[in-house]
Write a structure and sequence with these properties.
The structure holds two protein chains of two kinds.
Chain A: E1 4-8, H1 17-24, E2 33-36, H2 42-55, E3 58-60, H3 73-78, H4 91-106, H5 108-111, E4 120-122, E5 126-127, H6 132-149, E6 157-163, H7 166-169, H8 173-182, E7 188-193, H9 204-219, E8 223-226, H10 231-239, E9 243-247, E10 271-274, E11 279-282, H11 283-289, H12 301-306, H13 312-330, H14 335-355, H15 358-364, H16 368-374
Parallel strand pairs in A: 1-2, 1-9, 2-3, 4-6, 5-6, 6-7, 7-8, 8-9
Antiparallel strand pairs in A: 10-11
Helix pairs in contact in A: 4-6, 6-8, 8-9, 10-13, 10-14, 14-16
Chain B: E1 7-9, H1 14-17, H2 26-30, H3 34-39, E2 47-49, E3 67-70, H4 73-82, E4 88-89, H5 91-105, E5 132-136, H6 147-154, E6 159-167, E7 170-177, E8 180-187, H7 195-205, E9 214-222, E10 228-235, H8 242-247, H9 254-273, E11 276-277, E12 286-288, E13 296-298, E14 305-306, E15 320-321, H10 327-330, H11 337-353, H12 369-374, H13 385-394, H14 405-415
Antiparallel strand pairs in B: 1-2, 3-5, 3-15, 4-5, 6-7, 7-8, 8-10, 9-10, 11-14, 12-13
Helix pairs in contact in B: 9-11, 9-14, 11-13, 13-14
Classes of the chains: A alpha/beta, B alpha+beta.
Amino acid sequence: MRPGFWLQHGNRNADDLVAYSDSLAGESGGRPGIVLAPVNAPSRLNPLFKLARSKGDAFLDPIGHCIDRDPTKTKEKHFPWLTKDPRPDSREAWEGWMKESVDHQRSANLRDTGLGPSILVTPSPMITAASGQDELYAVLDAAAEVRANYDNNATPVWLALAVDRQHLREEPHRTRLGNAIVSAGVEGLVFRAFHTELPPVTDRRYLEGLREVTYAAYAGAVDLMLPHAGWLGWLAMTWGAWGFSGGLAGGSWGDREHGLPMTSPDEPSNPYFEPQLLKTVKWRVHEELSTAEDYEACTCPECTAMGETYDSDAAKRHQIWWANEEATRLVGLDRDGRATVVGGRLDAAIDFRDSLSAGLQGRIQASFLDIWRDLI
Amino acid sequence: MGDSSGFTSDRRTAGRLGGCGSSLNRAQRRFRLGAGLRGLGCPTGLSQRQGRALRAPYQPNRHHDLMLVPLSKGWRRSSAARGTPGYASTTSGWRSAAQRWSRETGAEPSRTGPSACPAPASFGQPSWSEGLRVVEARIAMPRVMRDTEIADQLGPFDAVTPIGQPGGSGECWRLEKGSNVEALKIIVKEPEPERFEREVTALERVESPLVVDVHRHGEDLVASDGTSYRYLVSEFIDGGDVRSHIDSGAVPDDHQLREFIRGVTSGLEVLHASQIVHRDIKPENIVLRGGDWATPVIIDLGLSRLLDQTSMTIYPWAAGTWPYMAPEQLRGERAINQTDLWALGVVAVEVANGAHPFLQGEKTLPADWAQRISGGAAVPGSRPAGLRDFVNATVQVAAYRRPSAPDARQLLDAAWPSS
């Protein structure tokens, strides 16, 4: 499987996924894989999966953490294990729950007569630090049992883990998590650690924890995939992560803890990813930036087509184009090589930011660059 | 190990070790051995005192001092019922130390409640502060079996000889028949019901000169009072355990030390490849075949964890010998392969120094243990830098930062090549 950037399926723009992935195949970044999720009804999801898999790598992220969120009608009707009530509370119960999900990933309904997923994934509930180590171990043991049942299957079975931010921010949760990952005996890990910020994440303790967990996966030769992580996933590739995803939906660029009060919109109005700053800014701010002395206009196909008139879909594809290019640059490099590339990229971004007027610096809010650079 | 009362000199030169830094492998890169490898260029050249050769036979479980075991009401009742003398519990000392440890490290101090941990009846209600106690078991206890009873049931033998003092979970005997000599371990205490099966299952999986070879086992060795005991018959390893060598003042020279560490590392590699975590690596559980430091044998897999079997253990749970227990064990978390590497690093320093790197004579877990172990283990400057590299890599508080056994062996080979 091709590691690096993966295109994330979201409820919105789902129909454009495969076509856009195809269009990227001709770019230097190459064709990204596609991560699908049970967010649409089977009548929409199954053909989409079949089409995506027929074109390249694709798998179904089971998004097991949704069991701990308010159920949607789609999930209640079509994916009942995501709305399990009562919630499983033992290894045996989790094993049955996981089996339902993996059986769905393997089902003929999903793939019809086409290829099955590139990987299978055992789902994970949201494991909180407050629940102690029992749930973590129960999920790990249940996943091991499920994997053992599919041993003869040619498709690798990866482990998913979804944890709260305390697992990354606090000891001994962080070390316990790292130890669990290094000893999980899996080929790959689909990992989520929810945070409270809109991207880009600046919580240093969270980032340090992510670095440690990524290191643990690397030390244990576990391929670490960060779905929905967006540019944070790119940063984690520096530390040894295998890949990450982001999609056409704004929410697919940074998993945020569910249920937090929204004090600001999910994304800026008319968001535009600024390649020189590695973050999204308002189109209005972009227009200001483009007059700066050191500004370099983007020449990606989307921006070339878009010109100076904002287009929401083109702006989304522009960000994906960059993520795909940047991730591909890192694939194949060892960690030192990745650190050199990413460090250089961040240094250039910091230089550019610092060359801007104080007023403009205040509007773009790019202090994350210094924090990220420190952690390389 | 030869019989020597003198001194040996093991001088390494920069020239002999030059160039090893140019072929760094993955393990070395991962553990950042640059500084250590540079240090290898320094001649060490200091003498190491060698103690007298020890020929004391392997005496399984002779030393079970300061062992942490799960608090088991069933076990306590069982001990009392048998009227077995000789166990001195220092529960209160341990509890307070464990609570301090908990506060210092942020480990979970207690269960969230019965529903979060359906503990089996035999374990009572385990909790971090109440689930453990320190047991000193060096006090002599009467044997549960007579030699004639053993010979009648397992023999015939030419000789059945007691080995050492019974203690901990078992008592040991030497069985001789012609030129064939075996060791018998009778299980007299079972803090965990599954422990015996686990040891047998683990040992049956492994066939290596680096791990003690079990010949047979059974459950029906009957004492004169009618009590049935389970037993293991294994190869008899004549050479003494590492504890007895340390206690006698024997200190291996650099070459012997390297071969010892490499041998135990390879033994762990064998165990881990068989999905077994030993969980109780310590000087008492490593025997030197023929008294030779270069041929260590790992014994006593009674606390081992079988990674490919569904966990039977309810956490938090801790068992082992606390001076050698990794931080994750002391926190009552799950032991992983790297847990054994921590213990090996500690043992390596103890063998090199003749003294435990963190202990200062305490019998119970000291209050500042977390601070002591988080600072790393000091290696004497007279020893090769490769030892320091090995210890720095293995004695890491976070288990995931320690090497696996194969990586540790590669690290040792590169950082401290055989002379």
